[in-house]
């Protein structure tokens, strides 16, 4: 019952925080349980991009702010996770 | 005649000085970059110059990481297995939570609830301190295991990245204390909170850098 009540009072920011922590734990599990295969690297890179986008849009509040700054920040979180995927083919 | 022109010119310049520029971004950017065209700049322009400089600095570290990994794939494959992964995970959760507290602090200053805003700032500061304690413990643990920046290429990159990030969390935590002091002096309100917002975006930038560092040094093998 307490858990249901907690879920009901959770706002948007709380959901995003829960998602970010869940993704972090998933990434760690993938890294610990599987050697870095190409698929694991791609999954980790995509989740890193997603985490970055959540922080940029909802914590930094760039979603409805300056579009150039948002573009630059998002580019960063496309370029470096892409390099993670590239590094999987080394 | 010429003295009359000089007087007109100086009067015009004086009027220009009194009139604020249309683009508050120091007038060095194209008009399409102005807040009127591109949207509001959270915080202020100087903090974004700082943030973009920091992003460039970390970008160089990330590039160095990928180049080193290309030349020493075996060392970079074994490196993360020597680290205390649980401490890395704990620090990630602490920093994500601190970003949440900072976002809450911003939401409360916008409704002029300074007490709750200060409470969330203290929580964010506590997270910063916990991060620093965990990281110090991790560096100490590494030393006990016999690892240092000179152990191999992986540890060199690891120490460069994480120690640099450690310093950023340290001074940003001090900045939180300064903002709490200013908040108590009545510097921020629902109408004027650009200083607090500047700190918030800087803090989120530090969190973003850790989001990238964490998988590179702890997860990818």
Provide the descriptors you would attach to this structure in a database record.
heterodimer; A: 90 residues; mainly alpha; 4 helices; 81% helix; flat; B: 221 residues; Four Helix Bundle (Hemerythrin (Met), subunit A); 2 domains; 8 helices; 76% helix; globular
Brief synopsis:
The complex is a heterodimer of chains A (90) and B (221). Chain A is mostly helical.
Low-confidence stretches of chain A: none
How many β-strand runs of chain A?
0
Portion of residues in helices of chain A?
A: over 70%
Secondary structure class of chain B reads mainly alpha
Q: Tell me, briefly, the overall form of chain B.
A: globular
Unreliable parts of chain B = 5-11, 13-23
The general outline of chain A is flat
CATH superfamily of the largest domain in chain B: Cytochrome c oxidase, subunit III, four-helix bundle
Q: Which CATH architecture of the largest domain in chain B is right?
A: Up-down Bundle
> What is the distance, rounded to the nearest whole angstrom, between the alpha carbons of the first and last residues of chain B?
79 Å
Distance between the termini of chain A: 50 Å
Let me know the largest β-sheet of chain B.
none
Number of helices of chain A: 4
Mean pLDDT reading of chain B: 89
What amount of the residues of chain B lies in strands? under 5%
Order of helices and strands of chain B: HHHHHHHH
Query: Radius of gyration of chain A over alpha carbons?
Result: 16 Å
Q: How much of the residues of chain A is beta strand, in percent?
A: under 5%
Quaternary structure classification: heterodimer
């Amino acid at each position: 019952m307490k858990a249901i009540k907690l879920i009901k009072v959770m706002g948007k920011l709380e959901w995003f925080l829960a998602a970010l922590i869940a993704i972090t734990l998933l990434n760690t599990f993938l890294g610990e349980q599987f050697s870095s295969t190409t698929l694991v690297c791609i999954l980790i890179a995509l989740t890193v991009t997603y985490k970055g986008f959540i922080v940029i849009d909802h914590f930094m509040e760039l979603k409805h702010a300056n579009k150039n700054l948002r573009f630059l920040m998002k580019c960063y979180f496309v370029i470096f996770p892409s390099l993670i995927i590239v590094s999987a083919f080394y | 005649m010429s003295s009359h022109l000089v007087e007109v010119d100086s009067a015009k310049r004086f009027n220009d000085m009194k009139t604020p520029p249309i683009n508050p971004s120091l007038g060095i950017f194209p008009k399409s970059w102005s807040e009127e065209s591109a949207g509001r700049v959270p915080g202020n322009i100087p903090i974004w110059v700082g943030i973009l400089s920091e992003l460039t600095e970390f970008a160089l570290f990330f590039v160095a990481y990928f180049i080193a990994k290309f030349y020493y794939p075996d060392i970079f494959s074994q490196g993360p297995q020597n680290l205390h992964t649980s401490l890395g995970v704990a620090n990630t959760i602490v920093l994500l939570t601190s970003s949440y507290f900072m976002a809450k602090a911003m939401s409360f200053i916008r409704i002029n609830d300074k007490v709750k805003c200060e409470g969330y700032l203290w929580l964010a500061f506590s997270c910063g301190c916990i991060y620093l304690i965990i990281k110090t413990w991790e560096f100490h643990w590494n030393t006990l295991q016999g690892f240092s920046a000179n152990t191999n290429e992986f540890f060199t990159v690891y120490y460069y990245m994480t120690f640099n990030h450690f310093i950023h969390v340290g001074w940003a935590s001090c900045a939180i204390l300064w903002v709490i002091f200013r908040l108590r002096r009545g510097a921020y309100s629902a109408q004027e909170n650009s200083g607090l917002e500047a700190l918030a975006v800087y803090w989120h930038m530090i969190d973003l850098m850790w989001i990238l560092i964490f998988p590179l040094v702890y997860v990818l093998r």
